[in-house]
Design goal:
- The chain is mainly α.
- It folds into 2 domains: 229 residues, 2-methylcitrate dehydratase PrpD (Orthogonal Bundle); 108 residues, 2-methylcitrate dehydratase PrpD (60s Ribosomal Protein L30, Chain: A, 2-Layer Sandwich).
- Helix content is 53%, strand content 4%.
- The protein is globular.
Length: 409
């Protein structure tokens, strides 16, 4: 009889990361900090302040607010907002231990998430359903759980996995942020309980009444990064919109650089982008971020797809340009998805999107994102340099804790 899938995963998580892998984790830490800074003045921030006195826990409500959090394409989930709060939540841990915890959290969340199918994505919010695994893997690493304990922790975390998509139909809901917060808390608790002897179901994925049976029609298998770490496959998001809108934004920006972005604007893209982002008349900031029409109008207006380009004021200003955008599915682009997020705007097609591993953004671009979002969040410019120093070159975990405490008050 083969080992349960979680047992195989737990052995993989027991590997020791290298210095270069920790350096990659630092980039994702900095990217997440940028998202936290930019979300400070949001409705979610007011909830976060009310529900917790701890910086890492308040931050669990903020990482996804701007829709600029990192993303794994084939797992179709956002690991950063869930994993980093858990990885930073043990005050006694040094920075290397926290970076290792994050690497293990990303690995657990992505490895399991990539085995779930399109039926799951149609009904369930993967960042929520898989987030407990990510937070659990990270906190279990901080607690130095043995592989058997890791299996128990992941099994219990998976036993309460959930989070449906219905909040997409209510633009006022903060449910996506609640999903992340809930996943962080649940994953941490599962690891803590396993540390004290709470056994868990090792076959929670493949068992007869496990998650594959409950949430998928055609589950895949658990894969790895060929001796590397799956964080290397995670994409950064340069634009303040749903990831499904990024290919169209990217193509429109390339046309604008060439001086060839002219109305009317015809967007051809993959089916999920249509499902999530065909929204010609957005009424709220969140709806604008999930609108292909608004996203292309932003670029046509000469803007950079930053948070200020999706506000109610921008929605009103760009109504005429939005009316000139049509959106249709392209079967070939859909066939390449989700391995490739692509789109065609007018006569220009891009197979991969800026920020994906095939078209990576560099440290300079991530630092620029930090500076932009620090300003958007109302922090002084020197806070951006503080974040860059702590995340990319620092070894003082307490300095990171203090910064989060101050930013999220």
């Amino acid at each position: 009889m083969s080992d349960p899938l979680l047992a195989v995963l737990a052995r993989s998580l027991a590997r020791t990361p290298t210095k270069s892998e920790r350096a990659r984790a630092r980039l994702h830490l900095l990217d997440w900090l940028a998202c936290i800074a930019g979300a400070r003045r949001s409705d979610a921030a007011r909830v976060a302040t009310a529900i917790s006195s701890r910086g890492w826990e308040r931050a669990s409500y903020l990482g996804n607010v701007l829709e600029m959090d990192d993303v794994h394409r084939t797992a179709l989930l956002h690991p950063g907002p869930v994993v980093w709060p858990a990885a930073l939540s043990l005050e006694a841990a040094d920075l290397d231990a926290r970076l290792d915890a994050a690497l293990r959290g990303y690995e657990a969340m992505i490895t399991i998430g990539a085995a779930f199918d399109s039926h799951h994505y149609a009904q369930w919010h993967p960042t929520a359903t898989m987030g407990g695994f990510g937070a659990c893997g990270a906190f279990a690493s901080l607690l130095e759980l043995e592989p058997r304990e890791m299996v128990d922790a992941l099994g219990n975390a998976g036993s309460v996995a959930g989070g449906v998509w219905h909040m997409r139909h209510d633009a006022q809901a903060l449910t996506k942020q609640w999903h992340v917060h809930h996943a962080v808390r649940t994953g941490r608790e599962a690891a803590l309980h396993a540390r004290h002897g709470a056994k868990g179901p090792a076959a929670i994925l493949e068992g007869p009444q496990g998650l594959f049976a409950a949430m998928t029609k055609a589950p895949g298998t658990l894969t790895d990064a060929n001796d590397g770490w799956l964080i290397e496959q995670v994409s950064f998001k340069p634009f303040a919109a749903c990831r499904h809108a990024h290919p169209a934004i990217d193509a429109a920006m390339e046309l604008r650089r060439r001086g060839e972005l002219e109305a009317p604007f015809r967007v051809m893209t993959f089916a999920d982008a249509i499902t999530f982002c065909d929204r010609p008349d957005p009424q709220t900031e969140l709806e604008a971020k999930f609108s292909l029409q608004h996203s292309v109008a932003v670029v046509a207006a000469g803007r950079r797809a930053e948070p200020q380009d999706f506000t109610p004021e921008a929605i009103a200003e760009l109504a005429d340009l939005r009316a000139q955008v049509t959106v249709v599915e392209d079967a070939d682009i859909t066939a390449r998805y989700p391995q490739h997020f692509g789109a065609r705007v007018n006569d220009l097609e891009l197979v991969d999107t800026l920020g994906d591993p095939e078209r990576p953004i560099d440290e300079i671009a991530i630092v620029a994102k930090v500076r932009s979002l620090v300003a958007w969040g109302g922090l002084p410019p020197e806070e951006a340099e503080r974040a860059v120093s702590i995340a990319l070159a620092g070894d003082d975990a307490r300095a990171l804790d203090l910064m989060l405490e101050e930013w999220t008050r």
